[in-house]
């Protein structure tokens, strides 16, 4: 068997590093170091991509700012999954006309999933003339070359060609957190759910070499990272394109064998590919968090079929019971779409019934948003917006009651939690996560950030838990 996904040759990556050196030399002539700002929208995959862009920028001598007015280079790393996400980005891009007017020479870049949509790239080209550089996810590894060209010639660059995609290893990474790390294990998606833009903008499924992933995890564990998040649009397809027999369950076991005190989380799992082998691996791996995000999207079999999801409501419920038989204390979360074209209110009520039967710990609920170029965008969608909104509200209420009840059951328990951040609230200045990933507020010294502590849960709400140090 031969590996079917192309790897970008190391000499091509090397050329990007020499572009970094050239920009760095140019920047070194300035009186003060130049500033960069990377704003990220969308999923963790984009967060991981932004860490690579920051890695490149750091190599080029940039320091970082949160102030758009001060930044010499601004990158908006965008998401195309719903219209709402795109409108937010366009609003922000529009606002940059003013920052650029006050700071001529400011370089404005738009990348990520929106950039890979042909009609969006055209719109930026025509109507947002202050944007200098537009590149899609496929071209991200070439960012230094693009920036160098812009700085030398100040023309506009659009690098948005569609392609199945390749894998680039050896890019610099500047991580935002010293506690939790994102590790992409695969890119792209082959599932073509009928509502979803991701396969069009992220290309075909392709897996990183296990050795490259394990080396990255070893370095993170040695650096003291406490949580490793393995990322992919559908991690359960991991390995299908590798030249060796290896699937996600095997990878999970291999990551679990890396020495260190860390938890492994992963997302996302597609129900059609979630296997008992994976559940067994999760149950056996002491570092695998007892948590699974398993999007079901809709409760009606007719709607699931129209969505091209590849499973039925019954097979999904059966999968969950097999999972719970192996890991009874699993924290289960999911994504749901309300208002898919043609979904009737009785069909929506099947979603409600599924939610009541499965009893998720938390649910991410979305109102269907038509995406240009997807099959669902061309389907009849007769339900009025008000009816969709009313259904959406019903779902939120049902789930909130379940979440609140599930959270109440934590009160009195003592759990080993990772303190992962701080807040301005003086009574609850720290945040932590239970092994299953539920948010806990607590008060304590900031020095606890990045450590595991035992917390007794004292109180709860629909969304969070409150804990006290033991
Ligand atoms: N690969 C992941 C999901 C990526 S997108 C998976 O398959 O589970 C995250 C979520 O956004 C999806 O699970 C879906 O619930 C939602 N979503 C995707 N496209 C959407 C659309 N057009 N309108 C509304 N929600 C959408
Ligand atoms: Fe989109 Fe479906 Fe792929 Fe998830 S599995 S990214 S919802 S096409
Ligand atoms: Fe959005 Fe792209 Fe992620 S569309 S959800 S940023 S893969």
How would you sum up this structure, described in words?
By secondary structure, this protein is α/β, with parallel strands linked by helices. Helices cover 36% and strands 20% of the residues. It has 13 helices and 19 strands. The protein has helices spanning 10-28, 44-59, 83-102, 118-127, 143-153, 198-202, 210-222, 248-256, 276-284, 301-306, 313-326, 345-358, 385-408, and strands at residues 35-40, 63-64, 73-78, 107-112, 133-135, 157-159, 180-184, 186-187, 206-207, 227-231, 263-267, 291-293, 331-338, 362-367, 414-422, 430-433, 439-442, 452-460, 465-469. A 6-stranded parallel sheet has the order 2-1-3-4-5-6, sandwiched between helices. Helix 1 (10-28) runs parallel beside helix 5, helix 8 (248-256) packs parallel to helix 9 and helix 12 (345-358) packs parallel to helix 13. The longest helix has 24 residues, at 385-408. It is globular, with a radius of gyration of 23 Å. The model has no long low-confidence stretch (mean pLDDT 97). The structure holds S-adenosyl-L-homocysteine (SAH), iron/sulfur cluster (SF4) and FE3-S4 cluster (F3S).
Chain-wise SSE layout:
Layout: H1 10-28, E1 35-40, H2 44-59, E2 63-64, E3 73-78, H3 83-102, E4 107-112, H4 118-127, E5 133-135, H5 143-153, E6 157-159, E7 180-184, E8 186-187, H6 198-202, E9 206-207, H7 210-222, E10 227-231, H8 248-256, E11 263-267, H9 276-284, E12 291-293, H10 301-306, H11 313-326, E13 331-338, H12 345-358, E14 362-367, H13 385-408, E15 414-422, E16 430-433, E17 439-442, E18 452-460, E19 465-469
Helix pairs in contact: 1-5, 8-9, 12-13
This protein binds S-adenosyl-L-homocysteine, iron/sulfur cluster and FE3-S4 cluster (F3S).
